[in-house]
Amino acid sequence: MGFVGVRMGGVWCAIFMVVGVISVSQAQLSPTFYDQTCPNVTDIVSSVLQSAAQSDPRIGASLIRLHFHDCFVQGCDASILLNNSATIVSEQGALGNNNSIRGLDVVNNIKSALESSCPNTVSCADVLAIAAEVSVVLAGGPSWTIQLGRRDSLTANQTLANANLPSPFFNLTQLKQNFTSQGLDTTDLVALSGAHTFGRSQCRFFDNRLYNFNGDGNPDSTLNTTFLATLRQLCPQSEVGRNTNLTNLDLTTPDTFDLNYYSNLQQNNGLLNSDQVLFSTSDADTIPIVNNFSANRTAFFEAFAASMIKMGNISPLTGSQGEIRTQCNLVNGASSSSGLIMGGGVESQDHMVSSI
Ligand code: HEM
Ligand SMILES: *[C@@H]1O[C@H](CO)[C@@H](O)[C@H](O)[C@H]1NC(C)=O
Ligand SMILES: *[C@@H]1O[C@H](CO)[C@@H](O)[C@H](O)[C@H]1NC(C)=O
Ligand SMILES: *[C@@H]1O[C@H](CO)[C@@H](O)[C@H](O)[C@H]1NC(C)=O
Ligand SMILES: *[C@@H]1O[C@H](CO)[C@@H](O)[C@H](O)[C@H]1NC(C)=O
Ligand SMILES: *[C@@H]1O[C@H](CO)[C@@H](O)[C@H](O)[C@H]1NC(C)=O
Ligand SMILES: *[C@@H]1O[C@H](CO)[C@@H](O)[C@H](O)[C@H]1NC(C)=O
Ligand SMILES: *[C@@H]1O[C@H](CO)[C@@H](O)[C@H](O)[C@H]1NC(C)=O
Ligand SMILES: *[C@@H]1O[C@H](CO)[C@@H](O)[C@H](O)[C@H]1NC(C)=O
Ligand SMILES: *[C@@H]1O[C@H](CO)[C@@H](O)[C@H](O)[C@H]1NC(C)=O
Ligand SMILES: *[C@@H]1O[C@H](CO)[C@@H](O)[C@H](O)[C@H]1NC(C)=O
């Protein structure tokens, strides 16, 4: 409903305009959503996550990435968690996910624990949002107020996942385009890329930079030569494009959530092309933001928290939309047999070949 005051002949006339018939009240996310129905939801998530981290120090990084890849495809609706079925072509098979995402089993363990304490209450989409925040805090990063009340989708869209998930080979223009499509601005892009302060990447996502970057037989000139030598040992030329060897995204402090991601960029030590372009693209508006976050931990942490909340708000299902899934990999009432349907997804192996 719009209110417009119009001055006419010295008299104020109020004109109330009903804009269309869009009176469906859109329920909002809220930090207190589970206060009555599952008061210690965050403790339960945290407790399962901490025990998983004992045997897998990388799990927090893998879980925040799941939330990101969920939110960029149909909004934060746990669509990424749906397995192949008669009606679902899983997003897990999309280019940015296949043989790369991790942590689906831990999400299922968290969901099981929640079903024991508060059955049919907490959505899988909210599990991903909570796990993302808890993971950052456990790694030494900022905390933020987690908005809750998302519901789970009845659908997934692998085609959309292929179109929406940014590639590590993208330049700055392409990265900005994909973030803008989600309502995220340049500051969000630089802040959220700071999640590469922890976790790992396979050689196949950056080894195009190491030998013949522009078809002229030279490596990427924006890659530090010392780092280049190290990466060439891990990622031989004979395997370019298909090498699953792992290395740390953050060269200096691989498992800590800190601002060193940005000082790495200033020293040409960004691992992915999509990281380094934030600092090395001529005259880019991202350079002063990198310099700011590199010099000021508070600025980075505040911006990261704000951008995570913004990303977590992308097109959630709320109210009576969607459902609360009982099992995160399955729409309620569907059969669990994944059968022989094509286009499935494969989780990444987690074997760190060498830390050189
Ligand atoms: C800006 C565009 C982005 C691109 C192109 C990108 C690309 C990638 C790639 C290629 C990997 C390595 C995956 C593998 O080797 O299997 C990765 C890992 C990771 N990404 Fe991103 N990413 C981007 C933004 C983000 C955002 C916004 C977040 C979270 C807020 C994020 C969090 C992570 C984390 C934590 C890892 C490590 C995962 C693990 O160790 O399992 N990334 N990313
Ligand atoms: C959840 O809350 C109950 C009651 O306050 C408490 O006994 C239990 O330990 C909590 N669970 C977790 C995992 O923190
Ligand atoms: C997936 O998304 C695309 C692009 O929005 C749309 O054209 C297509 O109909 C969707 N497919 C499914 C199965 O929802
Ligand atoms: C980014 O890549 C696109 C597609 O290859 C190209 O058209 C564009 O000129 C590139 N932009 C920059 C800044 O390099
Ligand atoms: C993401 O960027 C690529 C490269 O510019 C583009 O082809 C694709 O359409 C973009 N997707 C969205 C949703 O912005
Ligand atoms: C993985 O890295 C090691 C060095 O740590 C290297 O010897 C090996 O050839 C690499 N494997 C592949 C498939 O490239
Ligand atoms: C390369 O990285 C090292 C630290 O790893 C740094 O001291 C050096 O200044 C960097 N070189 C360039 C050209 O950025
Ligand atoms: C660091 O960033 C914070 C938050 O933006 C700001 O309040 C503070 O003044 C900055 N500190 C410096 C030294 O610039
Ligand atoms: C640094 O980043 C913070 C957080 O985004 C922002 O408030 C501040 O204005 C920035 N400072 C500069 C000098 O860009
Ligand atoms: C979903 O697929 C994974 C393997 O990709 C499997 O471990 C899991 O059991 C499946 N979930 C269901 C409910 O079928
Ligand atoms: C995902 O990777 C597996 C194993 O590498 C492959 O068999 C499958 O075809 C891929 N899925 C898609 C949809 O590309």
TrEMBL record:
UniProt-listed Enzyme Commission number(s): 1.11.1.7
Residues holding substrate: 166
Q: What does this protein do?
A: Removal of H(2)O(2), oxidation of toxic reductants, biosynthesis and degradation of lignin, suberization, auxin catabolism, response to environmental stresses such as wounding, pathogen attack and oxidative stress. These functions might be dependent on each isozyme/isoform in each plant tissue.
Q: How is the cofactor bound?
A: Binds 2 calcium ions per subunit.
Q: Kind of enzyme, top EC level? A: oxidoreductase
Q: Which GO terms describe its biological process?
A: hydrogen peroxide catabolic process; response to oxidative stress
Domain (Plant heme peroxidase family profile) spans 28-332
Q: Where is this site: Transition state stabilizer?
A: 65
Q: InterPro entries of this UniProt entry? A: Haem_peroxidase, Haem_peroxidase_sf, Peroxidase_pln, Peroxidases_AS, Peroxidases_heam-ligand_BS, Secretory_peroxidase
Where does the protein end up? Secreted
- Which sites bind heme b? 196
Which GO CC terms are listed, alphabetically? extracellular region
Residues the record lists as binding Ca(2+) 1: 70, 73, 75, 77, 79, 91
Known cofactor(s): Ca(2+); heme b
The signal peptide, as residue positions, is: 1-27
Q: Which reaction does it catalyse?
A: 2 a phenolic donor + H2O2 = 2 a phenolic radical donor + 2 H2O
Keywords from the UniProt entry? Calcium, Disulfide bond, Glycoprotein, Heme, Hydrogen peroxide, Iron, Metal-binding, Oxidoreductase, Peroxidase, Secreted, Signal
Q: List the disulfide bonds.
A: 38-118, 71-76, 124-328, 203-235
The protein's name in its UniProt record: Peroxidase
Amino acids binding Ca(2+) 2: 197, 250, 253, 258
Any single GO molecular-function term of the entry would be:
metal ion binding
Q: Which domain of life is it from?
A: Eukaryota
Q: Where is the active site?
A: 69 (proton acceptor)
Family of the protein in this entry: Belongs to the peroxidase family. Ascorbate peroxidase subfamily. Belongs to the peroxidase family. Classical plant (class III) peroxidase subfamily.
User: What PANTHER family would the database entry show?
Assistant: PEROXIDASE 22-RELATED, PEROXIDASE 72-RELATED
Q: Which residues cross the membrane?
A: none
